[in-house]
Prior knowledge:
mainly beta, 6-stranded antiparallel sheet, 2 helices, 10% helix, globular
Amino acid sequence: MNDILDLPAERGLPPEAALAMRARILGFVSPPPVRTPRLRVAVAAALLLAVACGVAAVGWDRPARSPGQVLAMGQGELSPTLRDAAEWCLQWNSPRRQAPGEQPVPVSLADLAVAVERGDRALVLFMNDVGYATCDVEWAGTARVSGGGATEPWPHGEWLPGPVQRLLLISTEPDGGDVSVGGRVSPRVHRLVIDHGDGHTTAARLSAGVFGLLTSDARLRAGNDPELVSYDAGGAEIDRRPLFQPEDQLEHCYAGPDGKRIYGRPTSGCRAAEKWRR
């Protein structure tokens, strides 16, 4: 995996604010106890749109992991190890683990929207009407678990930048490889795929306004300009956007019902933001 300790680029923070936030994140990570692996803040390939927050490294008797890859949409589809990863994320998101000034989103297992398991790494995403919380959990082939997480209230509530909003993305290589993707979609979206840019596609699973996608042996390359493509109930294409493009660099801006721009770069002729419903 691609492990980066810098802040996610999507935030578009001023340099001074980014440096201060990075210092706070690093300061929040305490030295690990004896025999505990070094703590890692995992922000891989623009993994999170929120600020990295509570992290931990703890001892744990993990259950046997099933081979292959798993994509779960909701708590009813969780494998035993994905359920454990979700429980760790809930602990890391507890208010007592937040840095001063952070705004933790109160989530429970019932808010689990997407969970991905690939080898010794799991990714979980919780969503509700208040906001979202997500974690990257890794076992690294041992009985110890480490990881990082992020939590943030929705900056614009139920409004999306068009029909789809990518909330997390993690890749196995710096410029692609296989990817795990999750986020929100508007009711207009009935099918969502990644167009690999080489003649292949991978379809996402949609469930109650949420999407999850896990590629296998896709060999994605950023140079091929892979895209997220949305289709309506009639099969017509309604949106196409670069998979690896940050939200603040979208080709189009998106405005709320009052006409005020809430997503994208300040350009003329903003498209309408779309409402999210679960």
